[in-house]
UniProtKB/TrEMBL annotation:
<keyword id="KW-0411">Iron-sulfur</keyword>
<feature type="domain" description="Radical SAM core">
    <location>
        <begin position="1"/>
        <end position="229"/>
    </location>
</feature>
<keyword id="KW-0408">Iron</keyword>
<dbReference type="InterPro" id="IPR034505">
    <property type="entry name" value="Coproporphyrinogen-III_oxidase"/>
</dbReference>
<dbReference type="InterPro" id="IPR004559">
    <property type="entry name" value="HemW-like"/>
</dbReference>
<dbReference type="GO" id="GO:0006779">
    <property type="term" value="P:porphyrin-containing compound biosynthetic process"/>
</dbReference>
<keyword id="KW-0143">Chaperone</keyword>
<dbReference type="Pfam" id="PF06969">
    <property type="entry name" value="HemN_C"/>
</dbReference>
<comment type="function">
    <text>Probably acts as a heme chaperone, transferring heme to an unknown acceptor. Binds one molecule of heme per monomer, possibly covalently. Binds 1 [4Fe-4S] cluster. The cluster is coordinated with 3 cysteines and an exchangeable S-adenosyl-L-methionine.</text>
</comment>
<protein>
    <recommendedName>
        <fullName>Heme chaperone HemW</fullName>
    </recommendedName>
</protein>
<dbReference type="Pfam" id="PF04055">
    <property type="entry name" value="Radical_SAM"/>
</dbReference>
<dbReference type="GO" id="GO:0051539">
    <property type="term" value="F:4 iron, 4 sulfur cluster binding"/>
</dbReference>
<keyword id="KW-0349">Heme</keyword>
<dbReference type="InterPro" id="IPR013785">
    <property type="entry name" value="Aldolase_TIM"/>
</dbReference>
<dbReference type="InterPro" id="IPR007197">
    <property type="entry name" value="rSAM"/>
</dbReference>
<keyword id="KW-0949">S-adenosyl-L-methionine</keyword>
<dbReference type="GO" id="GO:0004109">
    <property type="term" value="F:coproporphyrinogen oxidase activity"/>
</dbReference>
Amino acid sequence: MILKGLYIHIPFCESICHYCDFVKRVPKNKEMIETYINALIKEIKSYKDHFKTIETIYIGGGTPSMLDVNQFELLFESIKDISPVEYTVEVNPESYTKEKGNLFKKYGINRISLGVQTFNQKLLDYLNRKHTKEHVFDVVKHLKSIDIPKISVDLIYAIPGQTLDVLYKDLEYINELDITHVSCYSLILEEKTYFYHQYLRGKFEQMDEDMEAKMYQIVMDELKKQGFEHYEISNYAKQNHYSLHNMIYWTLGEYIGVGLGAHGFIDQYRTLNHKALPKYLSQPLEKKDLQNQETMLQDEMIFGLRKMKGISLSYLKERYDVDIFVKYPRLKEKIELGLIKIEDGRLMLTDKGIFLGNQVFMVFI
Ligand code: SF4
């Protein structure tokens, strides 16, 4: 069964991390947040007709956990008629409180995605993150005490200055936390970030590719030893606790995106909301583009190959009536290079291809 999702964007952060290029800002005051929440609820209500078919809700940011209890309650009330199978809120450890956790429980939130990135204090300071290792352990302890069944942690590797020992230590802490899911990304130098400005001044040096590849291998090996299944290039789950909401993105399912700069994919349209707050407040939607078979197939290939199980060739044939090796002749070359393979009727990345995914994805662009 294909699920339908609802993504809700909370664009506020207490401070800005040095690597971040998400749609976010530090709010001027409490009124700014409240004005935003009211506009957000209005936008959510405009999708009321879809409520019965929504199966995952994901409240992301920004930093959703910087909302206070009253603001959260307003938001949760506006979507209480939806009965999702998976209901996620992103939390930054420093802005979590037991009161907020109890409210999450009351409203049926069953998955928390915790922005940890690293447990090393020096690196946390370098990234401009505001929590400590102790915060993370306290939050997870409380979430478990109130029976939130699914806890995911976000990690970053290949941070300049990070050593293999620090990475091993981070992964040891993950083991100690005993959680159900990990998302682990390498640090990417994005334009319009503090690190990018540092880079332009010659004050930021990216980790070299060999070291980055070594770290990725360590992440894969260590998490596997801990019982995680590597199910998507950057995602690992225990006991099939995949992120159902993200699976919607990777399988081209439909999702509504509400909030500043949010993307959606609904009724064959890709939607994009305004990124500037004043524009969003007067009219959220910036544009909607009707998708055709060509763009759908392109997305299907790129997102599908991110999953370790790849894509079913018979599904592609049936859904798009196309021979992908005729459509994308360079695919054969990638097979010869050992970057992709066909196994049990599915096209998937090889172990080597996992490291060089971009070389494969280029074939479809
Ligand atoms: S908390 Fe998240 S959204 Fe906010 S600045 Fe840091 S990385 Fe970006």
